[in-house]
Write a structure and sequence with these properties.
Blueprint (H helix, E strand, L loop, with lengths): L1 E5 L4 H12 L3 E6 L7 H10 L4 E4 L5 H10 L4 E4 L6 H6 L1 H21 L4 E7 L10 E2 L10 H19 L4 E7 L1 E3 L18 H9 L6 E4 L11 E2 L1 E3 H16 L5 E6 L5 E2 H12 L5 E4 L10 E2 L2 H7 L7 H14 L10
Parallel strand pairs: 1-2, 1-4, 2-3, 4-5, 5-7, 6-15, 7-12, 8-11, 9-14
Antiparallel strand pairs: 10-13
Helix pairs in contact: 1-2, 1-8, 3-5, 5-6, 7-9, 7-11, 9-11
The structure holds uridine-diphosphate-N-acetylglucosamine.
Uridine-diphosphate-N-acetylglucosamine (UD1) binds next to helix 7 and strand 9.
Length: 341
């Protein structure tokens, strides 16, 4: 297949691009590089030894988006592009709703015009909202606690309505738990701009000496060690889940399917810190601060639906995730270069 990967220069997108190519698919990347650096493209080409077509395009621009479909013979779309910082979404809700909803509408409209029917959507476990049941299953009701999360809930609803209106669509909604880790080469990985919001990149930057210490947000939760508990999934397992979902929906009779992509295992903040210290051989100093507003104590995936229906499962452990993150962070202490090396 020739697969359009929106946000293909981003963290999860870039790892998925390499796996698509390794599986024999051709890839077209559409990215505006607003939250990624163009120097990643050279690394992707070096790793895959294959050319990749890249469109630098703002996908909220319907005409520019449609032009990609007019110029390329696209068979399927994996839609990663979107803003994803929870705190920023609370401060700038209009920017989040406009960007995340408009990119989805542009891409879906262009697909409609060009008869492309296969769509894999980057959703998030955040759509389970504040459900009291910690183990999340796909049939739980969806809601959100911040504008970023609502954009995911809303786009999921748009996709359900689309599939109900026209059963020729083949849509996969993938709900990610906490993606971490990096490519085994250490050449690509997560490169947040500015101060990281998420745990693993922050821990990695402390270990490499870019930041003095980690703030642990709360140690008085109802969890075994009092710190927040999450289901961390290696980005390579997550990328593999996209390939499995793409192949499954292409061969399926269902217009829409929803799968959790998580490991089913839960780790606390302090367990991540200890694993990272082992992997890196470095100290990870931390101090305990009050809870972060909006954080939940603990939740993890029930991945059994994806395991059974996709023949996929996350195989990498939290130690693997920390070792691969460390390889990436220690080889690239400041992330991707600003200009090509
Ligand atoms: C967040 C988002 C979620 C998004 C996910 C992955 C919220 C409510 N949810 O999840 O929508 O899909 O990131 O990008 O923000 N922690 C610290 N110190 C830090 C950072 C985090 O102690 O500096 C703790 C948190 O309190 C939490 C755990 O580490 O217990 C994981 O946090 P984080 O990596 O930010 O992910 P989530 O909050 O689970």
């Amino acid at each position: 297949m020739r697969v359009l990967v929106t946000g293909g220069a981003g963290y999860i997108g870039s790892h998925t691009v390499l796996q698509l190519q390794a599986a024999g698919h051709e890839v077209v990347i559409a990215d505006d590089f607003s939250n990624s650096k163009p120097s990643i493209v050279k690394r992707l080409v070096a790793l895959s030894d294959e050319p990749v077509t890249v469109y630098t395009v703002d996908l909220t621009d319907e005409l520019a988006t449609e032009r990609v479909f007019a110029e390329e013979q696209i068979d399927a779309v994996i839609h990663f592009a979107g803003f994803k910082a929870v705190g920023e979404s609370v401060a700038e809700p209009l920017a989040y709703y406009r960007n995340n909803l408009d990119t989805a509408f542009s891409v879906l409209n262009a697909m409609n015009q060009h008869g492309v029917r296969t769509f894999v959507f980057s959703s998030s476990a955040t759509v389970y909202g504040e459900n009291a049941v910690r183990e999340r299953t796909e049939d739980m009701p969806t809601s959100a606690t911040n504008p970023y999360g609502w954009t995911k809930v809303m786009i999921e609803q748009v996709l359900r309505d689309l599939a109900a209106a026209d059963d020729s669509w083949r849509i996969a909604i993938l709900r990610y738990f906490n993606p971490v880790g990096a490519h085994a080469s250490g050449e690509i990985g997560e490169d947040p701009s500015g101060k990281p919001n998420n745990l693993m990149p922050f821990v990695a930057q402390v270990a490499v000496g870019r930041r003095e210490k980690l703030s642990v947000f709360g140690d008085d939760y109802d969890t075994p060690d009092g710190t927040g508990v999450r289901d961390y999934i290696h980005v390579e397992d997550l990328a593999a889940g996209h390939l499995a979902a793409l192949e499954k929906v292409t061969a399926s009779d269902d217009a829409l399917s929803v799968w959790n992509l998580g490991s089913g295992h839960a780790s606390s903040v302090l367990e991540v810190v200890a694993s990272f210290a082992r992997a890196s051989g470095r100290d990870v100093p931390y101090e305990v601060l009050p809870r972060r507003a909006g954080d939940l104590p603990a939740y993890w995936a029930d991945p059994s639906k994806a395991n059974a229906e996709l023949g996929w499962r996350a195989t990498r452990t939290i130690d693997d995730m920390c070792e691969d993150t460390w390889r990436w962070q220690s080889k690239n202490p400041n992330g991707f270069p600003d200009v090509d090396e």
